[in-house]
Every structure is written in structure tokens, then in C-alpha cells.
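cron nightly-structures :: item 1 of 1
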Amino acid sequence: MKVIEWIAEVKSSVEKIFYGKSDVIEKLLVCLLCRGHALLEDVPGVGKTILARALAGSLGGQFKRIQCTPDLLPADVLGVSVYNPKSGEFTFREGPIITNLLLVDEINRATPRTQSALLEAMAENQISVDGRNIPLPNPFLLIATENPVEFEGTFPLPEAQKDRFFLSLRIGYPDRSAEEQILESQRRLDHPVNDVKAVVDLSSLLEAQAEVVKVFVKPEVRSYLLDIVSESRKDARLLLGVSPRGSLALYRGSQALALIRGRSYVVPEDVKELAVPALCKRIILKSEQAIRGIGEERVINDLLERVEVPVFKDED
């Protein structure tokens, strides 16, 4: 199966369950193709869990979910060694993190100790338990959700952990026609997501991931991307600008988005479209800017307006 056909099959399958948010599905596919992880920040009830389940079901991979609470321990996530009195040996009982797609619901309700247990998995695709390294399945995608309007009983994610997420996405409310579809589709006892069947296999996903790095990026587009990053490091409103990890995420994500759109090359519009989800959690505002109500998205959009967009004739 060609990559463009693979992408179309997965996207079409998810859209049958998750209505009216084609752009969000595409961004999640960008994370998947780039072997990254996604942070979904939005209010409860907009379909974050359904989106993750629909994607996992379409891929045919194993899906697991963790509901974070303050009493959740790292062992509850990673697994634990259990002593067997008959054999006199310890047997490792794997945790939910050993899966293809893991949904970490309300990650900011877990304590920093438990949050840190996810860092190695996100960065190295492995976990460390009892002094030994255990590789995670390939592919491995972690989707974490966070409610940005409720702070009681929560533990804000440290900047180092936010930087581990490839993209930060907001779903938003559906439009009227999409919400009407949602209501009509739920005239049944069980949820329609239970009907999702695998339309591709995981081996084809690995092939699609290998195609991302082959997407051509013109020197002018690469220079445009670096100009945006450079401007963030000089912006007086920021305590910290975009790191090299952020510029790499924007670069690789633009390649994946071009592939999803059926192109073998990146255009400036790909960079602009991914700038906010790729960079907004990789900058730190000065405290006085936050008091004035200036957010990260506004700063990134201001950077895009200041940096000159290269103009050239598109070529295949």
C-alpha cells in the first residue's frame, strides 16, 4: 500500500467516528508518522478519548488507557516485579505503558513522580524497572490529555516534560452540523467507536514513518523555519525561545504534513500551519506578559507575521 493510500484509509476510518475535526486528525497523524507524542489540551467532553480509541482501532494496534489520579504510582504505569513463593523468583508484571497506543487521561492530576515515569518512555522508547531496560513496542504513541481550565488537585507539567510532546493540540467544540452527526450516531446502546476495525497493519505504519525523512525541504523553506526560531530567541516578551528540539519538531512535522497532503516537498504553508502546535509549549513567557493576558499562541502568530515568507514557484 502506498503511503498516501495508507494515510487516506486511516483518516477516513477515524472520521467515521470523530466528526468535523479533520485538521486535528491530520495533526495526530503527523505525530504518529514522526514517532512523536501528542498533548491534547481541552475541556472535558470534546472527544479526546474517542479520538485516541478510533486511531488505535484503525491501526490495528494495542490500545491502553490510564486515568491519572494523585495516588497513581510509577509502578502502576510501568509494571512491578511480583515474588512467586513456589519458584522463589520474581516475575515481572507489565504495566499499561507496554502497548502501541497509550492514552494518559488528565496527566496533570498525577504527581510529578508519576509524570516523570513517562519521560524515559517518551524520549527513549524504553522503560527502566528493577535495574533493567525493557523496550516498548514499535510503534509506540503516547497521547496525554489535560484540562486547562481546572487547577484544583492538579500538578502542572514541568517545562521539561512539555518539551517531550511533539505537538500540543486543541480540539475545540464541533460545529453545529458535526454535533448533529454526533447526536444521530449515538442512537444505540453502545458507542460507535466499538465498530472500528483495523484498515491497515502496523508494518505499513513503519514503512510510512520511513517515508517522512525522504520528503524534500528546499533551502529557502529551511531558512524560513530557522528565521522563525531565531526570532523567538530575540523576542523581548519571552524568557526562553524555541530550542533546537523545537526546530527539529517543526522541520520533521512539516515533512510529515506535506506527505499527508500528497506532496514530496515542503512548502512554507506547512511550516506556518504547524508552528503553533509544535512551538507553543516550547517557549516560556515572561511573567508580566502572562499577567497582561498574552499567551504563547499569540506570540507564535506574531513571529509568523514578522518573518518574511519565501515566494517561489512550486515544483514537484
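cron nightly-structures :: done
The chain is about 45% helix and 15% strand.
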